[in-house]
Amino acid sequence: MENVLIIGGNRFVGKALSERLLHKGVQVDVFNRSGTSSDLRTRDIEGIDIIQGDRNKPEDLAKIDFTKYDCIVDMCLFFESQFDLIEDRIDKDTNYIFVSSGAANSKYSEHYGDYGHDKKQVERRLQDSKLNYKIVRPSYIVGQGNHRPRLGYYMNKIINREHIEIGGNGQNNVNIVFVQDVVKHLERLATTPERTYEMIELVGDNIQIIDLIYKVNEYSREGEVLLVQDDENAILPKNDFTFETNWDYTKLDEGLKDYAEWYYKEGAKGYGYNI
C-alpha cells in the first residue's frame, strides 16, 4: 500500500484529496496545526492518521517520519524559511508535490505582492534542489466544501438581496477551477513516482467577474443582483487573471449546477447563510 503525507490538508482540497486517495487504497497521514485537525475527525474519515503540529517548528516536524512516505503533498508551503526546515528531511526519491499558485506566474506575481513572489521563490528553490518534485499552480479554486466560499458568498448575497462588492467595474477577467479537477490531478501526480518534474497550471474557465456573478444568479432559486464598487472588500481582485485552458476541465455551467444543488441541500447551512 502506498503511503502519502499531506501537509496542511485539513480542509477543502486537502479533505477531498484525502478521501479520494483513501478510496484508492492509499494510506493517508495529515500533518496540521492542532486548532484545525478536528475538521477531519468530525467527518469520520476512517483510515487517516493525524499528526498535530506547526510546520514552522522543528520540534513539531520531528514528529514526522518522512522516510515512510512514498509521496508528500505540500499544501501550505508559503516561504523559503519553511522549505529550509523540510528540504533535508525528504529523501531525494520521494515523490514531492508542491501546491503553488497561479499568482506565481510571472504575468501576475506583481499583482499579488509578497504572496506571488514568495510562491515563485519556493518554486525556484525546488527546481534547484535534488528532490523529485512536481509543481501545480491552481487558479481560484471553487466548489463544494470551500471554507472561503466565493461562489457561496455570491449566491448568499443574491438570495438575500444584498449588495455584492466588486473591484473596479467588474469587467476584468478571472479564471476559476473546480475542486474536483484539482483533486483529480493531484491524485494522478501522487500516484506517479517517476521524476517528471512537471509544472502544471490547474485552471478552468476565464470569465469576467460581473458575468460570473450573473451566471451564479442563474442557479439561484430567487434573488437579485445588486452590485457596488468596493475595491477593499471585493472577494476577487480588479486585475485580470486568465490562463490558457487546454485540458479537460469541469465547465462553468456544469460545476455551478452541481454546486447550487449542494448549496441548497447543505452548503448554506454549513456556512451559516440564510436561504
Question: What proportion of the residues is helical, as a percent range?
Answer: 25-40%
N-C termini distance: 44 Å
Order of helices and strands: EHEHEHEHEHEEHEEHEEHEH
Structural class: alpha/beta
Count of individual beta strands: 12
Description:
The chain is an alpha/beta fold. The chain contains nine helices and twelve strands. Helix 1 packs across helix 7. The termini are far apart. The mean pLDDT is 92.
Break the fold down into its secondary structure elements and pairings.
Layout: E1 3-7, H1 13-23, E2 27-32, H2 38-41, E3 48-52, H3 58-61, E4 71-74, H4 80-86, E5 95-99, H5 113-128, E6 132-138, E7 140-142, H6 150-159, E8 163-166, E9 173-178, H7 179-190, E10 199-202, E11 205-208, H8 209-218, E12 226-229, H9 252-271
Could you give a quick summary of the protein structure above?
With 275 residues, this protein is of the alpha/beta class.
What attributes characterize this protein structure?
9 helices, alpha/beta, single chain, 275 residues, globular, three-stranded mixed sheet
